[in-house]
Write a structure and sequence with these properties.
This protein is of the alpha/beta class. Helices cover 28% and strands 24% of the residues.
Length: 304
């Protein structure tokens, strides 16, 4: 089912202001099914529409936005993501080690935006009773075939009892949801007292983001909000979490996939880089990347 183009104006997700100034603007590109823009591995760079800066708190965000984002995620199919298991496994193992600085198993862990279950595998190996929540019907079905409990849906209407998890993760999720504050409030409700939330997202205030401006590759239609660490900390504290701690986030990519991430610099350059990767036999080499434009945050739900 393809979606027609429709948009609504939105307020700032952090402070609620509707006062903003245009920061970047591009065409949205050739019309294609909306769900193609919301696959993890999509490469629709330079086609993000209108990005504004909140005049009151400085948050960057897409305005207007599509009102049917959730439907698009529900229909998304991303076969290319499956080839990323070795790199995703390495990234998620790093994230799990970091999470364990704040909360260790045994216990129940909910991974929101679980996709095909890659982090669930890592979390289960690490001792957690891992459960997933995923809007894509295709991805949730694949995770269930691997033996995981993955509910199809989002934190807008979570199919779980309150205070039923010891840890909750939102890896690269908060920038995609229509209501970040509501998402974090729902996470707070699902965690037991003393439970820990972990999330990752992009840092639009980073040096890399500021230097690249509109060519920063994280500026994509699927990303609705562009946070700095202070924005995320503010939201977490306002919904009730305590002691948020932020860290640079290291992502591991295989060299072939990394080459595709350079499409933002132009087709000739990334084709040359892709050819170099192939000629040198480095297609499957795992490369840790930390440019300072991704960060992780961990926070705790207070004890009663």
């Amino acid at each position: 089912m393809a979606h027609t183009e429709s948009f609504v104006s939105v307020p700032c997700a952090v402070c609620g202001s509707r006062r903003n100034s245009l920061r970047f603007e591009t065409p949205l590109g050739t019309p294609v099914p909306l769900e193609s823009f919301f696959r993890c591995t999509n490469t629709h760079y330079g086609c993000f529409g209108r990005i504004v800066r909140c005049d009151d708190c400085g948050l960057l965000y897409r305005d207007p936005q599509e009102p049917d984002v959730l439907d698009a995620y529900g229909e998304a199919v991303d076969e290319d993501y499956l080839a990323e298991w070795p790199a995703r496994q390495a990234s998620f193992r790093r994230s799990l080690r970091q999470l364990h600085r704040f909360k260790t198993p045994p216990g129940r862990l909910l991974d929101v935006g679980a996709s095909t279950g890659f982090f669930l595998r890592v979390a289960r190996e690490g001792g957690w009773q891992a459960v997933g929540l995923e809007p894509s019907r295709w991805a949730a079905d694949l995770a269930r075939r691997d033996g995981f409990r993955v509910e199809n849906g989002t934190l807008d209407a979570p199919p779980f009892e309150p205070e039923s998890f010891d840890a909750l993760t939102l890896w690269d999720v908060i920038e995609h949801v229509s209501d970040p504050r509501g998402t974090l409030a729902a996470a707070w409700s699902l965690l037991k007292p003393g439970g820990v939330i972990g999330l990752t997202t992009m840092d639009v205030g980073s040096l890399v983001a500021r230097l690249l401006g509109p060519r920063w590759p994280h500026l994509m239609r699927m990303h609705l909000w562009y946070f700095q660490a202070a924005h995320v900390v503010r939201l977490l504290e306002e919904v009730g979490f305590t002691a948020p701690q932020c860290f640079p986030h290291v992502r591991v990519l295989n060299a072939t996939y990394l080459a595709t991430r350079f499409r933002f610099i132009g087709d000739r350059a990334w084709h040359a880089l892709d050819a170099l990767v192939r000629v040198t036999g480095q297609r499957d080499r795992l490369v840790p990347i930390c440019l300072g434009d991704l960060f992780a945050v961990y926070a705790t739900k207070p004890l009663d």
